[in-house]
Amino acid sequence: MAQQWTGKTYGGERLHQSLINALRYIDVRLVYLFAAIFVVPVCLVLNQSRKTAYEYFRWHLNYGRCKAAWYTYLNHCKFAQVIVDKFAMYAGKRFEVEVEGFDKFSALASRPEGFLHLSSHIGNYEIAGYTLISEQKRINAVVYAHEKESVMRNRNNMFGKTNIRMIALREDMSHLYEIDNELTSGNIVSFPTDRSAGAVKCVECKFLGKVAKFPQGPFSVATMRGLDVLAVNVMKQGWKKYKIYVTPLPYDKTASRKEQMRQLAEGYVAELEKRVRQYPTQWFNFYDFWN
Q: 224 CB contacts (<8 Å, ≥6 apart)?
């Protein structure tokens, strides 16, 4: 990834399908090893992501020079593993998943009102789509519209087996009507909340020692309707294990709308920072996030 986020997975359809076919028979650890030895070093040489990752470790987590350099490599290795895991799921493989806070999700899913998931580009959120499943409510994942066709098709195939659908962010803003309809129907909408992606309105919060911009949209949707909100982060813990953290984000629904959005944004960012510090190599925003 260069300095601006494109929202697309690397590689073409032929490469993606070849990887899926191979992972039906190959242990994912062999692919991890290949990526660590051959793919990641090339990416570090050719890609500006090494610079932004190093700055994240050096200036936001305050690591020393050598530690920041080493963790930049580990960060890219972990990112490669998460990508491999996604394609392994498309190939039919499964991972062990532990959920912390599932009772919070179940309690909201049992109510007639809709609610929101707020996610981040840390860990592997896509795993949540195959684990946090509600029979009562449909889950609608808001996704970037210009992702590679092969990735979108595989997601649709996987999500088609569950009560999940995708809502693509579109320039004509038609996705807003879909979101409104789903929430009116009492369903769940999941937003990526750590990338503004050109959003006109943003909320500024202190994150890892410096002010960063977060898209206002998810906080606006929640406070407009007085919806309950969960932060959902899915972190890789081993070669075959993930842990999902489900955390309620309370806010004063009697306060002014502006104050509600501030409380909700700060609560979300505090939870995000907690998980990033807990799993520092699983921060996957490879661009100048604070600028």
A: 257
Residue 148 tokens read as 């590679």
**3-state helix, strand and coil shares in percent for the chain, rounded to the nearest 5:** 45, 20, 30
**How far is it, in rounded angstroms, from Cα 158 to Cα 274?**
30
Q: What is the pLDDT of residue 162?
A: 64
184: number of Cβ within 10 Å: 10
CA 44 – CA 58 distance, rounded (Å) = 16
Using CA atoms, how far residue 18 sits from 10, 88, 153, 185, 284, in Å, is: 14, 11, 15, 40, 24
pTM of the model: 0.91
Using one digit for the tens of pLDDT, what is the confidence trace for 191-240? 999 986 556 789 999 999 999 999 999 999 999 999 999 999 999 999 99
pLDDT at 4 over 50: no
pLDDT digits (tens, 9 = 90+) for 86-126: 999 888 899 999 999 999 999 999 999 999 999 999 999 98
Beta-bridge partner residues of 228: 115
Contact call for residues 114 and 222 (beta carbons, < 8 A): no
CA-CA distance, 218 to 33, in Å (whole number)? Answer: 38
* Encoded amino acid at 117, one letter: H
Position of tokens 């306060």?
Answer: 255
Residue 257 host element (H or E)? helix 257-278
**Burial of residue 51 (number of CB atoms within 10 Å: 0-12, 13-18, 19+):** middle
CB 227 within 8 A of CB 116: yes
How far is residue 54's CA from residue 66's CA, in Å, rounded to a whole number? 10
E strand or H helix that includes residue 99: strand 96-100
| pLDDT at site 2 | 36
Which of 250, 243, 240 is closest to 279 using CA atoms?
Answer: 243
